[in-house]
């Protein structure tokens, strides 16, 4: 694993994330390509999300193809992985007393507005 990958997903973060990742689907008929490792895919996704680059510009140095990274991003989004990772990180930091909740912000714009009477 190269330096950029270790910076994006250090071992401590991966230890939190790995148990949250759902198991990969297996093909009942067998065969096909071997599955790309979850850490490599997770790291590639983190790169895209934090760098702002387009999926199609994902560098090949991550060892993950664009379709694989995007497909797993979609799969993991559907099962709520990102919410679970967020909670795990908050739990870890909160357990160490590293969160200052006096500066928390609530955003009411993310709540769907109710339709008023016409």
Describe the structure.
This protein has 118 residues and is mainly α. It has one domain. It is built from 5 helices and no strands. Helix 3 packs across helix 4. The protein starts with a helix and ends in a 23-residue tail after the last helix.
Computed structural class = mainly alpha
Helical stretch tally? 5
**Element string (H = helix, E = strand):** HHHHH
Kindly report how far apart the N and C termini lie: 59 Å
Strand content: under 5%
Q: How many discrete domains?
A: 1
Task: Report the uncertain regions.
Answer: none
Mean pLDDT: 89
Provide the helix percentage.
40-55%
**Largest sheet features:** none
Radius of gyration: 18 Å
Q: Topology, please?
A:
Layout: H1 3-8, H2 11-17, H3 38-51, H4 66-78, H5 81-95
Domain Insertion element IS402-like: 10-86
Pfam family, one: DUF4096
InterPro entries: IS402-like_dom, Transposase_6_like
Brief overview, please?
This protein is 47% helix and 0% strand. It has 118 residues and is mainly α.
Question: What are the salient characteristics of this protein?
Answer:
118 residues; mainly alpha
């Amino acid at each position: 694993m190269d330096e950029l990958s270790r910076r994006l997903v250090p071992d401590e973060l991966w230890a939190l994330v790995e148990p949250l990742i759902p198991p990969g689907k297996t093909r009942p008929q067998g065969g096909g390509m071997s599955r790309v490792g979850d850490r490599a895919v997770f790291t590639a996704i983190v790169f895209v999300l934090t760098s702002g680059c387009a999926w199609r510009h994902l560098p090949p140095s991550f060892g993950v193809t664009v379709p694989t990274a995007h497909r797993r991003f979609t799969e993991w989004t559907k099962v709520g992985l990102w919410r679970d990772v967020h909670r795990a990180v908050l739990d870890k930091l909160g357990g160490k007393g590293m969160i200052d909740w006096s500066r928390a912000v609530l955003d009411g714009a993310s709540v769907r507005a109710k339709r008023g009477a016409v």
